[in-house]
Amino acid sequence: MKLLVIDGNSIVNRAFYGIKLLTTKNGDYTNAIYGFLNILLRLKEMSQPDAVAVAFDVHAPTFRHKMYDAYKAGRHGMPDELRAQMPVLKNLLKLLGYKIVECEGWEADDILGTLALKCRENGDECFIATGDRDSLQLAHGTVKVLLARTNATDVYDEKAIIDEYGVTPVQLIQVKALQGDSSDNIPGVQGVGPKTALDLISKYGSIDYIYENIETLDIKEGVRAKLIKDKENAYLSLALGEINCAAPIETDINAYKVQPEDLKAAAGEFSRLELYSLMPRFELDANDAAQVIAPTKEREITCSEPVSANELFEKIENEVYLYPVVIDNTISDIYFAFGDDILVLHSENPDFSAIVKKLFEDEAIKKYTYFSKQLHRLAAKLGTDCKNVAGDLMLSAYLLKPSDNNYDIEHLCLDYNIAVPEYSNPLGGEDENVSLASVLKPLFDKTNMLLDEANQTKLLDEIELPLARVLAKMEIVGFSVDKSGIEEFSKKLSIRIDELTEQIYNFVGYEFNINSPKQLGVALFEDLQLPCKKKTKTGYSTNAEVLEGLINEHPVISCILEYRSLTKLKSTYCDGLLKVIAEDGRIHTSFNQVETRTGRISSLEPNLQNIPIRTELGREMRKFFVAGTGNMLVDADYSQIELRVLADLSNDENMINAFNRGDDIHTITASQVFGLPAEMITKQLRSRAKAVNFGIVYGIGAFSLAKDIGVTRKEAQEYIDNYLATYSGVANYMNHMIDLAKEKGYSETLFNRRRYLPELNSSNHMLRSFGERVARNMPIQGTAADIIKIAMIKVDERLTKENMKAKLILQVHDELIVEAPEDEAEKALRIVTEEMENACKMKVLLRADGSLGRTWFDAH
After folding, report:
1. DSSP letters of 472-528?
2. Which among 618, 675, 676, 770 is least buried, having the fewest CB atoms inside 10 angstroms?
C-alpha cells in the first residue's frame, strides 16, 4: 500500500507565504486554504496514495520543551490572517474525508516519523510531504520525502540525499547536532557551521565516534576545542533534532483511507470561501453548494423556438431577460427567459433581424442581459439603437467585485449561491445556454439588491450601461491606418536592427542569440568581463535596469538597448498591427470594461492604448493612424486631471486656486517647495516638482523619488515634506483616506466606485503598505477614470443630437479621439473640449486641450 503523510503546519505555511493575501467578499482570508488544497492535489497526483494522513502540531509544550526550555524560543507567532484559516482548513479536510492526526506533547514531525517507521516495517510505501528539510532524515527504505515548494515539489530518497549531501539520511541528524538550528533554537556546537559539520560527519560517521576518538582524529585544533567545550550541547541537540518514531497514534494504514464525511457540506463550504476553481478538481457539485447555502425548489426548464414574432412579444410585458450567445464577437443566437420557459431565437431565422430590431427599438421594454455591449454591436450593424438596457449582469458583478477576474455566469451562480438547473434537449444532447438563460433573473435579483445596498445603482445606470453602447459603436467604426506606411517603417526598422546585430557581434567577437538572456549574460559578463550587477538562479540578469547601469562601461550596451527597443517596436507594433488590419483598412480593437480595479477601460486585440509615445521613434507609429478620406482627427486631452481630482478631493485651497487661475501647477509647486520666485524656476526644478506632484498621487516614497529625479534620499524627503507643508490639505487627505478605508474595508471614487482592501488589516508590513498606497490613490485614479467615461458618453450623445457624422473612435486614458468630416472638424473639436470640461462639476475647473490633424501624430 501507499501512504501519503502531510506535514500540515509546514505545507500551510508554505501556502500562506507563497500566495498573496486573498479574501472572500465577506473579508474571510483564504490564501493559505487555497494554496494548501492546490498542493494537496499535486501531492496526490505525484504519489497516487491508497491513504492520506495530515499531521498538525498541537499548541502545547512537547517532550522537547521539557528537555530544553529554550527550544523554539524566539519564534514569531502565527499571523492572525493564517490563524483564522487553520480551523476552517481542518474542517474542510474532514468534510472531504481526510484524517487529521494530532498528538499533544508530540510534534507533527514525530507523527510523520512514526507512520514512516510503520510503513518501513510493513514493506509499505510512504511519501512524506513537507516543506521542512528536517524530515529528510526519514527518507530511507520504502520512505520518500516530497519536499514541497510553492510551485514545485522535489522527491528525495536515500540515493538523492547521499548524492546531494554526501551523507546518509540518518547521518543528517548528526550534522544538525553539530551545526545546530537557529529556527528551532537548537544550540549545536558554537562556532561549527554547516560546512564543517557536514565534513566531520561525512568523514567520521557520527558524533559518538567523534567524541570517543576526539584526541586522535585529524581535526583542526580550533574545531577540536569547540567540540570538547560544547559536547553536552551536541548531545542535547542530537536528542532535540532526532525525530521520535514512537508517537502514540493509530498506525494502521487502512485507518487513513479517504472517506468523505459530507461532500454536500464540503461544496457549501468551498462556495462560501469562493474557492470555485477548486470545486471540480475535488469532484464537488456547484448545485450542491447552492442547495446547502440557499435551498431552492427543483426547476423544470423547457425550451422552444417562437413560432412567430407575435408569440415572442406576447410573452414580453414590460421587461425581458435575454442571453446572447456570442461567437467570434458576433451574436449567433438569443435566449429569452420567461421564468422556467425559455425561447430561443436563432440567427438563421429569416425574421431574426426584423424581430431583434423591433425589440431593440421598443423603449417601453426594459432589457436585462449579460454583456450588453454585444447587443449594442448588433444594433449598430442593424442600423438602429438598443434602447432601455436596464441591466448588464457582467457590469453589475464587476462593480460589486472589481478584483474578481471571472464574471462568467457559472462563476456568478457559485458566487451568489444560485443553482443552475439542468436542461436536456428532448431531441438529444444538452444545451447549456438554456440553463444559463434561466438563471439571469435570480442573479439580477441578487446583484441589484447588493448594488442598492452599496449605493452603486446610479454608477451602473448613468456611467457603465450607457458607456457599453458608446464602446460598441467605437469598436465597429475602428481606426483607419496607413498599411503601406507601416510596412515601409517595418522595413526601415529591419535595416537598423541588422546593423545593430552586426555591431553587437563585432563588439563581442562572435555570433550568438541576442534575445537569449543566458547567452547575452555570458557574452557581457564572462567574455567582455563587464561588472556583474545582479545574478539570478538561472544566470546573469540582463534586464533594462542592469543594462542602463552599464551604459558607460562599454559601447555594446547602447547597441543592445537600441536593438531591444527596435525589435519590440517591429514585432509588436508593426508586424502585430499589420496582422489585424480589417478588410475596410481599419483596426477594430475591443474595449474591456471589466478588467481594471480602478475602473479604467482597457483595449485589447490589439491594445491601442499602448502605442509607444515615450521615444521619438515610438511616436512615429502614430503617423500611421490616419483619418479616413475626407476626414480629420480631433484629439483632446485632459490637462493634469488626476492632480485636479486630488485638489478637489483634498479640498486644498492652494492647489484649487492655482488650477482655477490657470497657473502652471508644476511651476507653482516648484516655487513653493524650493522657496524661489516663479520666474527663477528652471526647467530642471520644474521637472523635479512635476515628479513630486505625480509621485504624491501614486504614494511615492523618498527612496523612489530620489531614484527617479537623481537626488539624494535626504533631498527627496525634503521635497516631499515641503510639498505636504505647502499643500496641507493633501497631507490631511492622505491620512484621512487610509483611516476611512480601514474603517469601511474599501476605498471609493467620487461616483461610489469601490475597491476592497483586505491588505489594510494585514500583519505583513509590505502588504499593509500596499493597501495604504491604494487607499490614497484609488479615489484619485478611479474618479479620473469615471470622469473620462462620463465625457465619452456626453461627447457621443452630443454628436448624435446635433446630427453630425463625426464619431468617437478611441480613448487612451485621458485622451479622446474623434474622426470627423472636414467640414465638421472645427465644430467637433469644440464639442469634444466642451463636453470634457463639463463632464462633472467640481471645485476645480476641468481643462481639455484639443487640436486637429490628418494623423494621430499631428493631432496630438
Report:
1. HHHHHH-EEB-HHHHHHHHHHHHHHHHHHHHHHHHHHTS---TT-HHHHHHIIIIIS
2. 675
Q: CA geometry: angle at 486 spanning 485 and 487, to 5°?
A: 90
pLDDT over 90 percentage in the chain:
56
Query: pTM for this structure?
Result: 0.83
Which among 828, 823, 826, 825 is positioned nearest to 802, based on CA atoms?
828
d(C-alpha 449, C-alpha 439), whole Å: 16
- Three-state SS at 105: coil
Type of residue at 661:
R
Q: How big is the CA angle at 115 (ends 111 and 117), to the nearest 5 degrees?
A: 115
Q: Residue 218 in 3-state DSSP?
A: coil
Residues 56-65 pLDDT 10s: 988 777 767 6
263-272 and 86-96 helices, crossing angle to 10°: 150
The pLDDT tens digits for 531-547 are 887 776 567 889 888 89
**pLDDT tens digits, 456-495:** 999 999 999 999 999 999 999 999 999 999 999 999 999 9
Backbone angles phi and psi of 478, in degrees to 5: 70, -175
Q: How far apart are CA 24 and CA 758, in angstroms?
A: 9
Coil, helix or strand at residue 248: coil
Query: Which residues does residue 848 pair with via DSSP β-bridges, in sequence order?
Result: 638
Cis bond before residue 531 (omega within 30° of 0): no
Among candidates 402, 399, 385, 570, which has minimal Cα distance to 472? 385
E strand segments, 393-516: 479-480
Q: Is the dihedral of CA 398, 403, 408, 409 positive or negative?
A: negative
Phi, psi dihedral angles at 145 (to 5 degrees): -110, 130
Spatial separation of the C-alpha atoms in residues 292 and 302, rounded to whole Å: 25
What's the CA gap between 429 and 472, in Å, rounded? 34
Q: Which helix (H) or strand (E) holds 422?
A: none
Partner residues linked to 148 by β-bridges: 153
Task: Count other Cβ atoms within 10 Å, centred on residue 155.
Answer: 13
Q: Which residue has the cell 464619431?
A: 807
Map grid coordinates 408569440 to a residue: 311
